[in-house]
Amino acid sequence: MKKTFRIIGTNVIALMLLAGCNSKGQKEHNQTNEGNLSVTPVEHSRTFPGATLKIQDIQVKETTSSDSVTFKVNYGIENFTLTAYTDDHNARHLANSHDGQHIHFIMDNSPYTALYKSENEIKLKKGTEHYLLSFLSRSYHESIKEPEAFVLNRFQVTDDGKYQKLETPKTPMLFYSRPKGEYAGKDTKTILLDFYLLNTDLAKGGHKVQVEINGEVFILDNWQPYKIEGLPLGDNTIKLSLVHASGNALTGKNTSVERKIVLKE
């Protein structure tokens, strides 16, 4: 299969076939290739000015297991309501949570847990280091990108089961959010692609996000939500990577993540 590279900006997708590329390699952003797979920006989501998320308290307790602890985090929220339905046009065509707005709880860039209460509790191994990204989310799972709507916490659980906060790196990082899990029925038609960036911006002459979907590659130069259309039923593989302007991948923690999702009838 040929790999197709597309540069996705706010107005144009530049399409270049690695093999057999010709001079007519550019199409408007609302056109797709012969497989009907497309990635286009999601526009006009409801805004939440001043939305704020903070960690109020973290508690770590011993468990019945000698090698793990219970990690509990309590959040404070301002100018945002958990469990409310996000009422805008995107809620009508993107997969929507019946439980409403929530927090995306992402530990170590693994699939997020949706929190509908301002707390969460998990078990962690002793002697381990972690990155916890939390951010506010619309009911249809699009992240709130207000400056104070997220919190990143790097920490370790010591060998004796104590919580120790660590310095947060200043290096560019990319956290995967959507798509996730399984989609069925009408939810398979338009799939939200959303991610969270830290310590960097995207630009035509700067860092970009490379999105590989079933072998086809899209290059994003703007941080915003996107919609994927034309995915086939069954298993689909999606990989997100931070890349330099040259196209070379960035190295370091939380710069590349790969997931599988399933589409059903």
Topology:
Blueprint: E1 4-8, E2 12-17, E3 26-28, E4 38-41, E5 52-62, E6 68-78, E7 102-107, E8 113-115, E9 119-125, E10 128-137, E11 150-157, E12 163-165, E13 173-178, E14 182-184, E15 190-198, E16 208-213, E17 216-220, E18 226-229, E19 234-243, E20 256-264
Parallel strand pairs: 1-17, 14-20
Antiparallel strand pairs: 1-2, 2-3, 4-18, 5-6, 6-9, 7-8, 7-10, 10-11, 11-12, 13-15, 15-18, 16-17, 16-19, 19-20
Structure summarized in a few sentences:
By secondary structure, this protein is mostly beta strands.
Give the key terms.
20 strands; Immunoglobulin-like; 265 residues; eight-stranded mixed β-sheet
Structure description:
The protein is mainly β and 265 residues long. The chain has 2 domains: 136 residues, Immunoglobulins (Immunoglobulin-like); 114 residues, Immunoglobulin-like. The chain is built from no helices and 20 strands. Strands 3-2-1-17-16-19-20-14 form an 8-stranded mixed β-sheet, with no helix packed on it. A 5-stranded antiparallel β-sheet has the order 8-7-10-11-12, with no helix packed on it. The protein has a 4-stranded antiparallel β-sheet with strand order 4-18-15-13, with no helix packed on it.
